[in-house]
Design brief:
four-stranded antiparallel sheet, 14-stranded antiparallel sheet, 293 residues, 6 helices, single chain
Length: 293
């Protein structure tokens, strides 16, 4: 098992790791010949899962990976440790990332090269302890299978949603996110004393209806709202995705099941009526389970 590469975009990787910082203490790094994946599965009480991927070409050059399992490597790591190491690499002249062993224990090693004001070469090595996972262990870690959503809609600017959520978080443990097929999103929180709803209009709906969804479209008007109630903490955790400066975020509402947020990184665009374009460098997918009111 071997992995070594030049990390040419440490800032992007840092921003992805910062986005997951509030989710859990540890995560899984899956390295493949084409993509880098980061997976977070939170505790049972939260239920939130994050599945992300970034293209290798957006992060690395001189990328070399070898393993006996389709050239894939799976590593469990501390989010805080990797975040600290990546911060050290910001602005470096060159950063090499490799899987190695220190005192017979596996580590993900960042070799960071810089230059002093006098022109002397400075080399800093940051080692992130990891646990190597086997393909058998990864068999039980699967991306959630969810039913078709009733509505897919482009989210409002994330800063606007964050501002609303920060004011709402002291008012309740649950937040209701609702959307329709007329470009509207509502975010609502209520308790015994107050009931507050924020409205967003003029948003863009995505249409890739299945046969079942087409029937639902006949049964319900486009102005009818579909709603999912989730933990406020989980909603705030999703909002940490602002770190990656997403180009687009799609909200999928699956009533009585989940909210799914697709956060697109990089040069993602949205084509008129045809769905998301493919010229993006990665995405973060948040699966947020619904809660009973």
């Amino acid at each position: 098992m071997r992995f070594r590469s030049l990390l040419t975009n440490s800032n992007l990787l840092l921003r992805v790791v910062q986005s997951i910082d509030k989710l859990s203490k540890s995560a899984i790094l899956k390295l493949t010949p084409d993509k880098l994946h980061i997976i977070v599965i939170t505790d049972v009480d939260s239920g939130l899962q994050l599945w992300s991927d970034v293209s290798i070409s957006a992060l690395f050059t001189d990328y070399r990976i070898e393993s006996a399992h389709s050239n894939e490597i799976y590593l469990e790591f501390s989010i805080d440790n990797l975040q600290r190491a990546l911060k050290s690499a910001q602005g470096a002249l060159q950063t090499t990332l490799k899987l190695t062993k220190k005192q017979q224990l596996p580590v993900l090693s960042l070799i960071i090269q810089n230059q002093s004001t006098t022109g002397r070469e400075l080399v800093l090595t940051q080692d992130v302890p990891v646990r190597v996972l086997t393909p058998l262990q990864m068999e039980s870690i699967r991306e959630p299978m969810v039913p078709d959503g009733q509505v897919h809609i482009m989210m409002p600017p994330l800063n606007s949603v964050r501002s609303v959520a920060e004011r709402m978080k002291t008012m309740g443990d649950r937040v209701a996110v609702a959307a329709n097929k007329s470009g509207e999103v509502r975010i609502r929180v209520a308790n015994d004393l107050v009931d507050i709803t924020t409205h967003f209009k003029g948003l863009e709906n995505l249409s890739y209806d299945s046969t079942q969804q087409q029937q639902q479209s006949v049964d319900r008007e486009a102005t009818s709202f579909y709603t999912a109630v989730v933990d406020m903490k989980n909603f705030l955790r999703f909002l940490q995705s602002y770190h990656v400066a997403p180009k687009n975020i799609v909200c999928c509402i699956i009533e009585n099941h989940a909210l799914v947020f697709y956060v697109y990184i990089g040069s993602t665009g949205y084509g008129s009526g045809s769905g998301l374009l493919t010229d993006n460098c990665g995405s973060l997918t948040y699966f947020v389970p619904v809660r009973q009111v």
